[in-house]
Hints:
The protein is built from five helices and two strands. The protein has helices at 25-43, 50-71, 82-87, 89-104, 107-110; strands at 3-7, 14-18.
Amino acid sequence: MTKVSTYCAFCRLPRSIYRKKGVNWVNVLQALGLACGSSYLIWRELDPRAMIIFVGSLAVMEIFILLRTRSEIECPHCGFDPVLYKRDPAKACEKVKLSIEARKEDPNVWLARRPPLRLPKRKRSSTREIVA
Length: 132
Ligand SMILES: [Zn+2]
């Protein structure tokens, strides 16, 4: 649900990205449970200071969701980063070049069963059509 299948804008290979925009109601309930549980553990009652734990855990969840979303935007095949491309196309181009150069010299890529960068096959028009 939070993973979306898509294609890389640069190399056109299929890949999946994490598309959660922020905390949802499930995360709010988790933070509430964490705050209530830790309040009972620390102060043996429901203390108003548990609100600090609640807000802090929500902030930490939001930060980790944003970091995960941002870290998975970059293409694992060619290293293309669309967010960086929107800000600075020259830097994004340099990053792709460095990624492809690094892959060229990596022996694990060349010993892999699958080729390192598979481009989608082009459709050829068939010349052997059967006409009835
Ligand atoms: Zn790519």
